[in-house]
# Entry
Amino acid sequence: MEIVVDRSKCEGLGMCEAMAHEFFEVQDDGSMVVLDEHPGDEHRQTVSAAVDACPVLALTLKG
# Structure
C-alpha cells in the first residue's frame, strides 16, 4: 500500500493527522508530511479512514 498526496489540492487542514498522526503531520507552515508512505497492511483501516477524511480529496491509496 502506498499513500499518494496531490500537493496541488492539499490545504494542510489536518484531518489526516487527526485520524492517523503516526502517518501524517501538518507542519507549522501548513504543509503536510507523510511520515510513512508505505504503511503495512495491518494499518490499512486507519490509513484508509484518514484518506477518506480529507475534505479536499488530496489523498489516495495505491495497492
Q: What stands out?
A: The two ends are 4 Å apart (CA to CA). Helices lie at 15-19, 44-53.
